[in-house]
């Protein structure tokens, strides 16, 4: 039961990153707008470059968390892939959040950091009853 809940959580955590590549609404407070990236204003990186990087990292994050979710639930993807998939997706997510930083995204950073701690510090695997 908990593996299914975690799998669904990972799936939705990954999918929310696709908001970076979807058309942004007119709301100035919308947090997933790469056109407002701090790198454009402070470093002068081209908007097209930021959007391309955003697309790459959004896709990597969404696909990575989708596969990690499937591995969590033991569906199609081998469970032994859970840790590398989770690490890859969490790191891609952090890069994307860094590119398009908005203070509302702090929860996403916390989720990614907790997942990395679970893997690297606790050596946790959600389908295992023990922490090694």
Query: Kindly, what is the distance between the CA atoms of the first and last residues, rounded to a whole number of angstroms?
Result: 21 Å
Order of helices and strands: HHHHH
Biggest sheet features: none
- Our Rg estimate from Cα atoms comes to 16 Å
Report the total helices: 5
Looking at how many chains there are and whether they match, the oligomeric state comes to single chain
Mean pLDDT over the full residue set: 89
Q: Give helix % range.
A: 55-70%
Strand content: under 5%
Number of strands: 0
Spans of at least 5 consecutive residues with low confidence: none
Structural class, from secondary structure content?
mainly alpha
* Mass-distribution shape: elongated
Structure description:
The protein has 132 residues and is mostly helical. It is built from five helices and no strands. It is elongated and about 45 Å long. The two termini are 21 Å apart. 30% of the residues are buried.
Secondary-structure blueprint of this entry?
Layout: H1 2-16, H2 38-42, H3 47-73, H4 82-99, H5 106-120
Helix pairs in contact: 1-3, 3-4, 4-5
For the structure shown, list the relevant keywords.
mainly alpha, single chain, 132 residues, elongated
Short description:
It contains 5 helices and no strands.
């Amino acid at each position: 039961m908990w593996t299914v809940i975690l799998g669904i959580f990972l799936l939705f955590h990954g999918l929310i990153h696709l908001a970076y590549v979807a058309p942004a609404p007119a709301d100035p407070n919308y947090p997933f707008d790469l056109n407002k990236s701090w790198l454009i204003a402070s470093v002068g990186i081209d908007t097209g470059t930021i959007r391309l990087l955003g697309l790459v990292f959004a896709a990597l994050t969404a696909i990575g968390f989708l596969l990690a979710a499937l591995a969590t639930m033991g569906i199609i993807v081998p469970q032994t892939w859970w840790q590398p998939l989770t690490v890859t997706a969490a790191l891609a997510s952090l890069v994307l959040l860094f590119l398009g930083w908005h203070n509302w995204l702090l929860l996403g950073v916390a989720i990614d950091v907790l997942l990395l701690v679970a893997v690297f510090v606790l050596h946790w695997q959600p389908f295992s009853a023990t922490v090694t």
